[in-house]
Amino acid sequence: MTQLAQSKAAEPIVRAPPLFELRGISKEFPGVKALDDVSFSVWPGEVHMLLGENGAGKSSLMKVLCGAYRADSGSFHYNGETVEITSPADARKLGIAVIFQEFSLVPYLDIAQNIFLGREPAGRVPGTIDRKKILADARRVLDSIGFDIDPAIQIEKLGVAQQQMVEIAKAISQNARILVMDEPTAALSDRETELLFALIARLKADGVAIIYISHRMAEVFSLGDRITVLRDGRRIDEVKPGAVSSDDLVRMMVGRSVDMSYPRTFAEAPGKVMLEVKGLASASGITGIDLVVRQGEIVGLCGLVGSGRTEVVRAIFGADKATAGQILFNGQEKSGGPDEAARLGLALIPESRKAEGLALIRSVGDNLIVSALRKIFPRGLFDHGKSRQVANDLVRQLRIATPSDKQAVGLLSGGNQQKVVIGKWLAAGAKLFIFDEPTRGIDVGAKAEIFALIDRLVADGAAALMISSEQSEICHVCDRAYVMRDGQIAGELARHELSEENIVKLGMQHA
Amino acid sequence: MREQAMQLNTNPLQRIPGVAVMLVLLCVVFSLMTPGFLTMPNISNVLVQSTILLMLALPMTLIIMTEGLDLSMGAVLTLTSLIVAIVALATGSMVMGLLAALAVGTVFGVANGWLVAVVGIPPFVATLGTLGMAQGLSLIVSDGQSVVGMPAAVRGVYSGTLAGVPLPIILALGSYLAFHGLLYHTRFGTYIFALGGNREALKFAGISARGLLILVYALGGAMVGLAGLLMTARMNSGHPTAGLGLEFDAIAAVAVGGTSFERGNGWLLGTLLGVVTVGVLRNGLNLLALPSSIQVASVGLLVIAALFVDGLRSRS
């Protein structure tokens, strides 16, 4: 394995050739070199991690692999033989299956119909489907990956993790030997992630080659047999997990040394209490929530997915109705819904920026000022000059990387979209920023920038309450943190007590 | 989780209330208010009168499931009804009239599908365009006059019976069963769910969405041709405003029946119930001797009420 892992793709292979190999793949779009001479190989029963920031070329490489893009130059080799991939059908014939983050499942068909979409067993009457056979075939495929579920259940009724299992079953049913997975754990809980890893181990044992794209350092090390790092469309290096540290990998990804400790200027003395929550409960299952956020603080809210973190911030913001307790904002009791919260100066920045925070086809400028229209134009008359001035000030202040305030927000990177959401609330006069997973889907370099921005905000007299599943982020950035378990606050950790170990302990332990 | 999912899956009755509650409610109200409502002849009358609407609403369900729409159905129905009348009058043959109507309807359907799938015009606009063309053509072929003097065979399609069952009912039932089989038991039906639910999935399965879309709209056109025969038979003439606004009732019936305009979430039995509900509503208001303007407004109200109930249920 050592030999294999270190053999460069372009060199002659001493042992059996890799199951699949790309040599010198380049792909250019007008103005952008998406892939520049990338070589990459994968052996049966191997998990090959593909690591890179957003825009490093991972998605382009995936699209080339599945036949959605045609490479400008370079060659593909399957079991040592030169092959062509010019269409999705070519890729399928070679046994390459891609599990995208956006599943290619049909919500109102059942599991069996989805697994065999386009390959339905024919019934007796021409054009019909043999229902018995499709169910039996589906059951066999599901069994082979150890997924115990009735194949007649509609996709719509399944959770994300189960849908992902169906996607994998679909790939397996097409005799996929090379499985490409794009951040498969992004939407999974810890428990579901474990199940997925168990399935990956099973597939490996069956000799399936897995190309796994990830942002998460922990899984890169625990799962990967080899790691290839991409940056700016180029292959930076191929390494073995045992031979590098996560700092090494980050350095390769960003091309510079990123200080993982996210510089933070902690206030010397705690500020005045901004938000005080006493005995808060809501119908979503949270009870007895007490918490305090002071001016100048970043307060973490952690715990396992499903422990009630999002429900707490929704109740504070008024998106869910509180059934008990009290919320005091700057000493004033808050009882109304989201509109009152926004008026008081609370900002909720949800996890799904695209769905809840931004109008993607509208410009950066429009998105920045939309919540502040009443404030900027108190007389109700719109003034283009003034709106652009306000927008451009924000673009500068928040260092949003955009060609102009007229650029559509959807075209910006995840990190810059996040900044636009923050800017939108800032323009509206928000004082307390509540973040739900502020760095999800954002690459390493942009994460540091987002945290620097939050740091500046709180230093200027704001405060932040932040939900994050990345415990290292909480530890590096927060003044204090509350840890949730089963809808309640399990404990509070002061700055000096903040460690991943303590967070995990509090979040899991049974009182 | 698993048991819950299975329970939901095996119990389509969960989805009935919106439309079924409405239907039962209307029947109760009308039978209390008018003595003539709950009689065998009236019930038969409601059902027979609903058959034309069902023939539009069935393909409309499939079209809406593809996240499409066909606004041209009413106008094309007028045209095909006139074609039946003119051809039957000229040839003396009901069958020739039907074939001509099927051909004209299918041409319009293919045109709709082509505009939507190949040219890429949004369905609302594309079918609004063909609506105008069909309306204009109707005026041209009829010269704005009714076409009268149908052969007996034409009239017989509407008034005839087979084993005591009115022919339109048999045609409608046959159409329903055919669509049911098509949607739930064939590849084509499976792909209709995918057209609205996840077109990418179809692409990855190597299936052309374009061809399927054209086929769906063409099927709609053909059904409008068949409905044209029933329309002419019912009026024993062709009339240049015969199908006016029926696309509204068809879309209403589909919506009332619980088919969603997004993500390929359709329900054919719901459409059947929706059609009967619209029919009962119009019939009841008729018996109460309310003007037709009230009827149109009521159908609108019905749609809103049904969707309101569904919205309340999905929120809880």
Describe this structure as you would to a colleague.
The complex is a heterodimer of chains A (511) and B (316). Chain A is an alpha/beta fold. Chain A has four domains: 2-95 and 177-253, P-loop containing nucleotide triphosphate hydrolases (Rossmann fold), CATH 3.40.50.300; 102-175, no CATH class; 272-345 and 431-511, 3-Layer(aba) Sandwich (Rossmann fold), CATH 3.40.50; 358-429, no CATH class. Helices cover 34% and strands 23% of the residues of chain A. In chain A, the strands form four sheets. In chain A, strands 6-7-8-3-9-10 form a six-stranded mixed β-sheet, sandwiched between helices. Chain A has a six-stranded mixed β-sheet with strand order 16-17-18-13-19-20, with helices on both faces. In chain A, strand 19 (480-485) and strand 20 form a beta hairpin. The longest helix of chain A has 16 residues, at 190-205. Chain A is globular. Chain B is an all-alpha fold and 316 residues long. Chain B has a domain at 40-245. Chain B has helices at residues 2-9, 17-33, 40-65, 73-91, 94-119, 123-142, 152-159, 167-185, 187-197, 199-204, 209-235, 246-256, 268-287, 292-315, and strands spanning 161-162, 165-166. In chain B, strands 1-2 form a two-stranded antiparallel sheet. In chain B, strand 1 (161-162) and strand 2 (165-166) form a beta hairpin. In chain B, helix 4 (73-91) packs parallel to helix 6 (123-142). The longest helix of chain B is centred in the last third of the chain and has 27 residues, at 209-235. Chain B is globular. The model of chain B is unreliable at 1-11 (pLDDT under 50). Chain A binds chain B through residues 88-89, 92, 102-110, 113-114, 117-120, 123, 127-129, 131, 149-150, 152-154, 156-159, and chain B through 1-2, 5-6, 8-9, 181, 185-188, 190, 193-194, 197-198, 200-207, 263-266.
